[in-house]
Specification:
Elements (H helix, E strand, L loop, with lengths): L1 E5 L1 H12 L27 E10 L1 H19 L3 E6 L2 E6 L2 H5 L8 E4 L21 H4 L3 E6 L8 E16 L4 E7 L10 E11 L6 E5 L5 E5 L2 E5 L3 H20 L2 H9 L1 H11 L6 E6 H4 L10 E15 L2 E12 L42 E2 L22 E5 L1 H13 L6 E3 L9 H7 L14 E7 L4 E4 L9 E4 L3 E7 L2
Parallel strand pairs: 2-16
Antiparallel strand pairs: 1-17, 2-15, 2-17, 3-4, 3-5, 5-7, 6-7, 7-8, 7-9, 8-12, 9-10, 9-11, 13-14, 14-15, 18-19, 19-22, 20-21
Helix pairs in contact: 1-2
Length: 495
């Protein structure tokens, strides 16, 4: 296994590349994996838990959580507003001008607050949101990673301070009412104080990384001070009746009983969370190698199946996160015959070779326990004791390890799919590859040539899969070495 270290940019790119994926694959051009075999659409015998391994250090985790916080704060800086149009409710993100321009104003604002926010009077029609500034946001949201005991799932805690403003337009009397957090008018009051705890674990059946509400204290409301007001008219009379009701509901929701009720609703809330998260959280799909390498004319059925999904194991230590990535590769020239023994059929352009048996030599991997896959145990470099550092001893944000086992597995299926059966001709080399070029290397061929510009073509015919070696990454010992035995090259001269 070899290791790479990355800084904040690479960490963020890795995170959002995974987050943007879907079941049909995040990479442009990927086709969905076949439905069989379940549950992945790829043979479990060709999946390695921990084929890629990662360690996000405390410094990397702090930067990642800070980036997520910045993203949320930027989104909510001017409030999320919901505008009403008869029976249609449209939710969008808008600033003060956008909201004021709506026909009926902006009937709801939700934005981050801070406990030291200066006094701010709730607005009048057409209800622009209270002025926001950077000081308002500094305590708005915090995200922390709770260190977990060995063998127990890590917990991410999201703590949010939120202000809420809900204006209501009574059209018959042309007056306005407001439900709002008391914190908006009085900085001695607290904003809505909510904590949400998310558990990071792995699916017991598939082994994939999962994010769910924590089994205990998933959602906690520490304070919820609400009040009502109006701008006069008949709305003042309505407010006399509504205000004590809102106050009662606010006190009830802030009580311990409310937290019990909220936790009873946690399964439904968790279901909504699963609808937001990508499934799977990773990169899966079939690479159409014919399209990708169309310049070199690979076979029409050269499909390479890939499966790279966080999972297998995950744990936190020393303020950081250690996790495995389930890595799989497969090739199948006929995806309509996905039955045992016919899951990895070779292309017609290569000799038939045995599909890698990951539990036998040279792999010798133990069973992973999830859908017939195999496991590569975590390397010591990813334990967090100590975390990886640069040449100056400064802790790095992230360390990634790519195993030779996975490289060899991917190399076999690159061969087996026919993706290495390529034709290189004058078109792919900008017309510089012709008979005259060959005559420079083989002078005697000139005796056969009438047209020294006659086109040539090379045909690559691999007879075995490439194998890989891992070195120290020095000038004399390359980080990755690839060897191919008996790669045959056919030469065609179009005379």
């Amino acid at each position: 296994m070899f290791f790479t270290r990355a800084t904040r940019g690479a960490l963020i790119a890795l995170t959002f590349a995974s987050a943007c994926s879907s079941s049909s694959g995040a990479l442009s051009g990927l086709k969905p994996l076949p439905k069989d075999p379940a549950p992945f659409g790829m043979p479990g015998s060709q999946i390695i838990e921990g084929g890629i391994q990662a360690r996000i250090t405390k410094s990397g985790m702090d930067k990642l959580l800070h980036t997520l916080t910045d993203t949320v704060e930027a989104t909510l800086k001017t409030g999320i507003c919901a505008s009403g149009d008869q029976n249609l409710v449209i939710t969008d993100v808008c600033d003060a001008n956008d909201c004021a321009g709506h026909t009926q104003g902006c009937p709801a604002f939700l934005y981050l607050a801070s406990k030291d926010r200066p006094n701010s009077t709730h607005p009048s029609a057409p209800f622009p949101p209270p002025a926001a500034n950077n000081d308002d946001m500094k305590n708005g949201i915090t995200v922390t990673l709770e260190n977990s005991a060995p063998g127990t799932p890590p917990i991410i805690a999201v703590h949010a301070l939120i202000d809420l403003l809900v204006p209501m337009h009574v059209s018959l009397s042309d007056c306005y009412m407001y439900a709002y957090t008391e914190h908006l008018n009085d900085n001695t009051k607290d904003p809505i104080d909510i904590q949400i705890r998310l558990q990071i674990s792995t699916d017991p059946i598939t082994g994939e990384l999962t994010v769910h509400l924590a089994p205990t204290n998933a959602i906690t409301i520490a304070s919820l001070g609400l009040n009502t007001d109006s701008n006069g008219g008949i709305c003042s009379l309505i407010n006399l009746v509504l205000s004590p009701v809102v106050s009662f509901v606010s006190d009830a929701l802030s009580s311990s009983l409310a937290n019990v009720i909220i936790n009873l609703l946690s399964p439904a809330i968790d279901l909504l969370l699963q609808g937001i998260l990508p499934n799977p959280i990773g990169l899966t799909g079939v690479v159409d190698m014919q399209s990708l390498l169309s310049k070199y004319s690979p076979p029409a059925n050269a499909n390479l199946e890939i499966f790279e999904v966080p999972g297998g194991y995950v744990e936190s230590s020393a303020g950081g996160l250690t996790l495995g990535i389930m890595t799989g590769a497969n090739s199948d020239s006929d995806e309509t015959t996905r039955t045992p023994g016919f899951d990895s059929e070779p292309s017609d352009c290569v000799p038939v070779r045995s599909v890698p048996a990951l539990g036998s030599a040279p792999f010798n991997l133990p069973a992973g326990g999830h859908s017939g896959d195999f496991r590569l145990n975590p390397a010591g470099e990813f334990s967090g004791d100590p975390d990886p550092t640069d040449a100056n001893g400064v802790a790095q944000d992230i360390a990634l390890g790519l195993s030779r086992s996975y490289l060899d597995l991917a190399g076999f299926h690159l061969y087996n799919s026919g993706s290495m059966c390529l034709r290189i001709d004058a078109r792919s080399l900008q017309n510089q590859f012709n008979a005259g070029t060959l005559a420079v290397l083989v002078p005697s061929i000139g005796n056969l040539l009438e047209d020294r510009k006659a086109p040539l073509m090379l045909g690559l015919r691999p007879t075995s899969a490439p194998t890989f070696s891992v070195g120290a990454g020095s000038a004399t010992d390359p980080l990755i070495g690839m060897a191919i035995q008996d790669l045959r090259v056919d030469l065609y001269a179009f005379l």
